[in-house]
Amino acid sequence: MNPFLPTEKRNNFYQFPLIVGHKNTSHRNTNEIAEVEDHDDDDDNMNEFMSLFSIMVNSSAAVNAYFTTGTKNSEGEWTDLIGAVTKEEIDIAVDTIIHTIEKSDDMSFTYNILKFVPRI
Known about the structure:
The chain has 120 residues and is α/β, with parallel strands linked by helices. The chain has one domain (14-104): Periplasmic binding protein-like II (D-Maltodextrin-Binding Protein, domain 2). The protein is built from three helices and three strands. The chain has helices spanning 43-56, 80-86, 101-104; strands spanning 17-23, 60-66, 92-93. A three-stranded parallel sheet has the order 2-1-3, sandwiched between helices. The longest helix is centred in the middle third of the chain and has 14 residues, at 43-56. The chain starts with 16 loop residues before the first strand and ends in a 16-residue tail after the last helix.
């Protein structure tokens, strides 16, 4: 993995498009063992976050939609949204992604950008 650049050096993309991956929540996983990540309905918050982030770093955004967050297939490769990140097909994945040991093997988690607060 490439080391991260300091924030000061990544604050102006001069309207260069960031390719953003986002899970399309209008599609529902019909498997009984579906991940919690694949059942969130946070499209509005994720879209608002991406809009604000684009303004903050002076970029435009090209959005690709994926059916699920992703799972590892029999070859050990990730599918859907996480697969696009690991294959470098997208620059940013904007979605609820739960930090697990399996995911930590293939990607790094720096810190939570958004935190989920359950409303009970």
